[in-house]
Amino acid sequence: MLAGRKILLIIGGGIAAYKSIELMRLLRKAGAGVVPVLTRAGSEFVTPLTVSAIAGTRVQGELFDLTAEAEMGHIELSRSADLVVVAPATADLMAKLASGLANDLASTLLLATDKRVLLAPAMNVRMWEHPATQRNLETLRGFGTLVVGPDAGEMACGEFGPGRMAEPPAILAAIDAALTTDTALAGRHVIVTSGPTHEPIDPVRYIANRSSGRQGTAIAEALVRRGARVTFVTGPATAPRPLGCEIREVETAREMLAAVEAALPADAAIFAAAVADWRVAAETRSKIKKQPGAEPAPLTLTENPDILKTISRREMSRPGLVVGFAAETDDVLANATAKRLRKGCDWLVANDVRPETGIMGGSHTAVTLITDAGAEDWPAMSKDETADRLAARVAEALA
Ligand code: C5P
Question: Domain 6-179 sits in which CATH superfamily?
Answer without folding.
Answer: Flavin prenyltransferase-like (3.40.50.1950)
